[in-house]
Amino acid sequence: MKLYGMGQSRSFRALWALEESGLEYDYVNTTLRTESTDTDSAKHPSYLELNIQGKVPTLVDGDLVLTECFAILNYIARSAPDSGLLPKVSTPAYAKLDELSYFILAELEQPLWSKGKHMFALPQEYRIPAMFDTAKFEFNKAVNALNHLLGENDNEYVLGNEFCMVDLLLAHTFNWAIRFEFDVPDKFIALRDRHYQRPAAQRAMSIIE
Ligand SMILES: N[C@@H](CCC(=O)N[C@@H](CS)C(=O)NCC(=O)O)C(=O)O
């Protein structure tokens, strides 16, 4: 397996999952917003053949090419069933895993990415700094909704008694929020700190540093 990624971007989710999984892989450091002539650029024609949007992550396994981080997480988890990344829980609990995952991708991370787009990702002429306040408002709303979805759950992990891919997704997303200076409640800072101390997360960090 080959993972193309960049730093603490969404590709870190996949890199961390690979470290949790015990699968063998190669990590290819890819640069964003660089010249298409740079061989490591996500705009290089050979990379665009894999990922038409010139984004990370991309996972290549034989003929299979995946360019969505959630599909990549699922693929890694299914390829390493003993890793616990996909928990062995009841169908309703599994449905909760789906719900939280889609919530994180569709609601919680969107204001973060909106801020990122308007800070550095969009061409200068399309950036609207005034929307930073909107992003903050939407993030706070999403955090409220997340609190509601999690209910009274004070467990160390979101589902059952073990770490799984939703914990990873949540920790990465709150790390992103902290880096982008959103107001993150203490309990989610603690969640990020706890999960980032996992040996697999630390190994993944040392790969990107
Ligand atoms: N829907 C994709 C989005 C991937 C994405 O937007 N990646 C960002 C980094 S986190 C990227 O590569 N952006 C390219 C750019 O900003 O030029 C996923 O969830 O994997």
Question: If you had to describe this structure to a student in words, what would you say it looks like?
Answer:
The protein is of the alpha+beta class and 209 residues long. The chain has two domains: 83 residues, Glutaredoxin, CATH 3.40.30; 108 residues, Up-down Bundle (Glutathione S-transferase Yfyf (Class Pi), Chain A, domain 2). Helix content is 55%, strand content 7%. The chain has a four-stranded mixed β-sheet. The protein starts with a strand and ends with a helix. It binds glutathione. The site of glutathione has 10 residues, from loops.
Explain the layout of strands and helices.
Layout: E1 2-5, H1 11-21, E2 26-29, H2 45-50, E3 58-61, E4 64-66, H3 69-79, H4 91-108, H5 110-121, H6 131-150, H7 165-179, H8 186-196, H9 199-208
Parallel strand pairs: 1-2
Antiparallel strand pairs: 1-3, 3-4
Helix pairs in contact: 1-3, 1-7, 1-9, 4-6, 4-7, 5-6, 7-8
Bound molecules: glutathione.
Glutathione (GSH) is lined by residues 9-10, 32-33, 55-57, 68-69, 121.
Summarize the structure.
With about 210 residues, the protein is an alpha+beta fold. It has nine helices and four strands, in the order E-H-E-H-E-E-H-H-H-H-H-H-H. Bound molecules: glutathione.
Beta strand count: 4
Given helix and strand content, the structural type is: alpha+beta
Assembly of the depicted chains = single chain
Q: What is the count of distinct domains? A: 2
Helix content: 40-55%
Q: Could you name the CATH topology of the largest domain?
A: Glutathione S-transferase Yfyf (Class Pi), Chain A, domain 2
Cα-atom radius of gyration: 17 Å
Q: What average pLDDT do the residues reach? A: 96
Largest pleated sheet: 4 strands, mixed
Question: What is the approximate shape?
Answer: globular
Residue runs with pLDDT of under 50 for 5 or more positions: none
Strand order of the largest sheet: 2-1-3-4
End-to-end separation in angstroms reads 21 Å
Which distinct ligands sit in these coordinates? glutathione
The CATH class of the largest domain, by name, is: Mainly Alpha
